[in-house]
Task: inverse folding
């Protein structure tokens, strides 16, 4: 069963981004402790030679540990790739066209809160990207806009308000001015 | 197949003398370090503009961004590591032959010309399509640059690509040179030797000695970069043709994939030679061989195969309907995670080599240790970026900018410095002028580097977009401002490095006169002190001139300040003159920008 994608927002930061940052900080702390212990191990009196067989066995163990950790990470996150999001029957369909240096929305809104929106993203000239921000300024979701092609982005905006859209792919001299607003009503 | 008799290289007529190789490698070091100082200064200009000190116009900002990215990434980091790799191979008993030397020479020239072309086409011809120049943006400039600039830029990047291909040829010529394989072997067997297969199968043991570990990552990346660069070169040729004939075009999604087909492995053109340097130098200072088993051969086999095909992780968020891109991206995710294994195993091997060793904590080893920690810290960011569902909230944010500066400056960059500190005595026949300055260089780079990188990462978590000349709203301004003093620390660190390097090379005009031992010049000492005082006075007046020029105008007064600094330096007041020159240059820069910008 593929879960529909909801925007998780805590304060003004994306919840997923925040958890990523916290998990990363924990790993960095562990890494720094390891580096410190490694540094300390070279101080002091002369040490006995390493048992090479034991070290090689440990190397194999480390290899397996890394491989298993990566496989678990892959399996845990595999389900939530954007193109596996489930489209709902009553979704709102909005075509968004990027063009240096603005977005055109069809229909222009307002859109309904709590109902899934399918953004059909395309571009008239160069590569752009559609990045959607909550009224409090947190990045909700994003996808690329390609000239002559359509990318489908499914998002459910739970709260009413004015959302921002910014271009997230460098598109020329006016890139930093390429912003738009969309309104979501109850 | 019978093994050919071992022939001393001198008799084959194909070996190149150590002095020649040293001179060549030193040329790489000097050119890449010079590019580094310019590219780094451009980076500082970008950051201060985002902090609204002296704001560049968006067009200028993107031109500088394009020049900074390519010059720093390819013209400094890749170029330096490419050059140092030849020395590592020479020390591993794989010296350059004549053919390899010619290719290495071609590599140097084409890279220098290519980087000069990039700088000219961006800063003079106004090309500002970013250093990844996603097609078809180079042909949609909205009047900022013309087709000629696009063609000149594409040609310059093509020269850099030719340089990389020449380097690959030189590395493979070194590793595969038949006369250095005493036991003979076919080309495939010698290639297998270079990839480390000799450690698991005697068939590939084509030399008497076991393959030195640094040879493996260099062979891997030389193979990969050939496969990666050729399609990219074709795309660049298409762009050159299109700049002349506008009826020619290519599919944007295909172009994007071709760009990243090259754009991913080129990152490893920095990482794998860095790994080779770690493999070479860490055991030297630890006083024991690299602690590595056969698993590392498997890891490098994974690297050589997956590195070529995982560029699509840069286009995770491109999945148009009716294309195969979503499927390609899905397959790319596990392959990208797989390439973590050579890094994980290398870090394990290097850590075990250091663990409880009789380590000599020399200056290069201190740089290497800091680099290893950064490799781990930045590598974990890479794992996060490799996961599609995480990429959705981090893609094209400042997090990515933080990640690659963490990896490029604080891992590969520190390895480059470590290798320069380690190899300078043999390359030039001179000792380092000051170890104290070297240690200051390390600390300033590390503290300044992390102080600069961490704000980017936090901004990225908060959704700040990358490649925006002016970040949206005011939310990100405080962190950008806080990063500036750290950027200054990086700059000071690199100036100390440049000073230390020039003093080591014997550039005596930098020497303070008071440093002359009194016993050597007993009669002239008093006169020297007098000159110092006069120099200090003149240089000090230069500080005043520069500040008045900046704050009151005209800015030309800063030029007078710089001249006063030079005079003070010539008279022997090095310290005051250094302050005057730095301040004068900064004032002049700020003043000029203020004048040319609206």
Result:
């Amino acid at each position: 069963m593929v879960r529909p994608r909801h925007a998780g927002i805590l304060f003004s930061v994306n919840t997923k981004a925040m958890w990523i940052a916290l998990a990363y900080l924990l790993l960095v702390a562990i890494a720094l402790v390891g580096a410190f212990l490694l540094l300390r191990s070279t101080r002091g009196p002369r040490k006995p030679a390493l048992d090479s067989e034991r070290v090689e066995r440990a190397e194999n163990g480390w290899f397996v540990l890394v491989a298993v950790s990566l496989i678990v990470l892959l399996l845990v996150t595999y389900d939530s790739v954007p193109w596996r999001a489930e489209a709902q029957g009553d979704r709102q369909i909005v075509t968004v066209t990027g063009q240096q240096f603005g977005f055109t929305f069809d229909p222009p809104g307002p859109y309904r809160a709590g109902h899934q929106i399918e953004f059909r993203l395309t571009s008239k000239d160069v590569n752009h990207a559609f990045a959607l921000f909550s009224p409090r300024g947190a990045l909700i979701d994003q996808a690329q806009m390609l000239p002559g092609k359509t990318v489908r982005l499914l998002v459910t905006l739970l709260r009413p308000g004015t959302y921002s859209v910014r271009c997230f792919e460098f598109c020329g001299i006016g890139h930093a001015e390429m912003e738009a607003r969309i309104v979501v009503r109850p | 197949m019978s093994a050919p008799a071992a022939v001393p290289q001198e008799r084959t007529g194909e070996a190149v003398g150590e002095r020649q190789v040293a001179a060549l490698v030193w040329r790489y070091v000097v050119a890449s370090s010079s590019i580094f100082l310019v590219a780094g200064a451009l980076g500082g200009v970008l950051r201060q503009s985002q902090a609204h000190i002296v704001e560049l116009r968006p067009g200028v900002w993107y031109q500088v961004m394009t020049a900074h990215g390519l010059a720093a990434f390819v013209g400094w980091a890749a170029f330096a590591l490419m050059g140092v790799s030849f020395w590592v191979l020479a020390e591993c008993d794989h010296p350059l032959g004549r053919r390899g030397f010619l290719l290495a020479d071609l590599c140097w020239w084409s890279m220098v010309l290519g980087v000069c072309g990039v700088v000219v086409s961006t800063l003079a011809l106004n090309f500002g399509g970013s250093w990844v120049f996603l097609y078809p943006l180079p042909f949609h400039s909205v009047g900022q640059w013309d087709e000629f600039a696009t063609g000149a830029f594409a040609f310059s990047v093509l020269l850099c690509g030719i340089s990389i291909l020449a380097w690959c040829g030189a590395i493979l010529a070194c590793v595969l040179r038949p006369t250095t394989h005493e036991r003979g072997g076919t080309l495939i067997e010698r290639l297998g030797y270079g990839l480390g297969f000799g450690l698991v199968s005697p068939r590939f043991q084509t030399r008497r000695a076991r393959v030195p570990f640094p040879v493996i990552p260099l062979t891997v990346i030389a193979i990969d970069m050939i496969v990666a660069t050729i399609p990219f070169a074709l795309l660049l040729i298409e762009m050159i043709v299109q700049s002349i004939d506008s009826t020619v075009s290519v599919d944007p999604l295909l172009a994007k994939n071709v760009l990243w087909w090259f754009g991913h492995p080129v990152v490893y053109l920095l990482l794998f030679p860095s790994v080779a340097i770690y493999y070479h130098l860490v055991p030297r200072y630890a006083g024991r061989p690299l602690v590595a088993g056969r698993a590392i051969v498997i890891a490098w086999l994974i690297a050589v195969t997956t590195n070529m095909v995982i560029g699509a992780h840069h286009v995770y968020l491109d999945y148009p309907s009716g294309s195969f891109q979503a499927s390609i991206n899905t397959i790319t995710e596990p392959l990208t995670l797989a390439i973590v294994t050579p890094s994980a195993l290398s870090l394990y091997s290097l850590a075990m080599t250091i663990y409880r060793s009789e380590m000599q904590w020399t200056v290069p080893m201190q740089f290497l240790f800091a680099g290893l920690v950064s490799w781990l810290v930045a590598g974990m960011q890479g794992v996060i970026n490799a996961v599609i569902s995480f990429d959705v909230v981090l893609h094209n944010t400042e997090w990515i900018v933080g990640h690659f500066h963490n990896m490029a400056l604080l891992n590969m960059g520190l390895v480059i410095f470590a290798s320069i500190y380690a190899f300078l005595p043999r390359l030039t026949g001179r000792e380092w002028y000051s170890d104290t300055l070297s240690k200051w260089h390390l600390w300033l780079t590390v503290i300044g580097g992390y102080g600069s990188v961490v704000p980017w990462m936090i901004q990225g978590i908060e959704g700040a977009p990358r490649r925006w000349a002016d970040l949206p709203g005011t939310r990100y301004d405080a962190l950008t401002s806080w990063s500036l003093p750290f950027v200054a620390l990086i700059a000071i660190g690199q100036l100390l490095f440049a000073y230390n390097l020039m003093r080591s090379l014997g550039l005596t005009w930098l020497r303070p006169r008071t440093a002359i031992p009194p016993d050597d010049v007993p009669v002239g000492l008093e006169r020297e002190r007098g000159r110092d005082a006069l120099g200090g006075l003149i240089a000090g007046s230069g500080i005043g001139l520069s500040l008045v020029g900046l704050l009151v105008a005209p800015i030309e007064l800063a030029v007078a300040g710089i001249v006063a600094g030079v005079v003070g330096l010539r008279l022997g007041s090095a310290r005051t003159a250094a302050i005057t020159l730095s301040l004068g240059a900064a004032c002049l820069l700020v003043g000029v920008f203020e004048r040319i910008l609206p």
